[in-house]
Known about the structure:
The structure holds two protein chains of two kinds.
Chain A lengths: L2 H22 L22 E11 L5 E4 L2 E3 L4 E10 L4 E8 L4 E9 L4 E11 L6 E9 L2 E11 L1
Parallel strand pairs in A: 3-9
Antiparallel strand pairs in A: 1-2, 1-4, 4-7, 5-6, 5-8, 8-9
Chain B lengths: L15 E7 L4 E4 L6 H9 L5 H7 L15 E4 L2
Antiparallel strand pairs in B: 2-3
Helix pairs in contact in B: 1-2
Amino acid sequence: MNKRTMFSIGVILLLAVVVGLVGCGKKEEPKPAQAPVVQAPPPPAPAVASLTFAKGVDVNWTAVNPTAEFKGSDRINASIRTENVVPGNQLLVRWLYLGTNQLVKADSVALKEAGLNNSAFYIERAKGLPPGEYKLDAYLNGALAKSAGFKVVK
Amino acid sequence: MSPFPGNDGPIDFSDVTGGGTTSGGPRTYVVKKGDSLSKIAKEMYGDVKLWKKIFEANKATIKNPDLIKVGQELIIPD
């Protein structure tokens, strides 16, 4: 190998080292700033806004002659206003007689309108409901959402 | 006998009638003993004359307006 060849090899090696060093020292280009992700607030949870006992309900399922005291022969109505619901949400009520801690009746409806809904439930008994304290538990999509009590007197 | 009716033992509530309806659909009424369409109209609308309105809405299940059955569920139109 003559001097010229050795010189050429030396130059090539030197260039390779320089290129390698430059490459290693290369700074990464900054990534373009990402736009901050704005998450939409979660939709408000479905809820029971009100539960009212009454002697009757009108065509809008709202209470007429609200009261928490009934005679045994009365039809007992419960008007329930729900909010933030979507069609298909389930509203279940359980009527309980506290005298013996018994379930009197349970009924459910599938809510049909988005947002606000009015629903009405009732119980009655031809031979009269026994006097005492009662409670109605309202469950929305399986979770207890509201409870309220009423009394049946002789 | 206890003065507290609930303390006499379990009560048979199987004869309790009831139901539920919600906005966006028709109201319903379950016929009970002694009911007539005019009586139901009085209770639901406050006007016995509106029995025909209930009859018209339930013609599919009521053939004779003087003959409604206990336990039958009627649509109560607005």
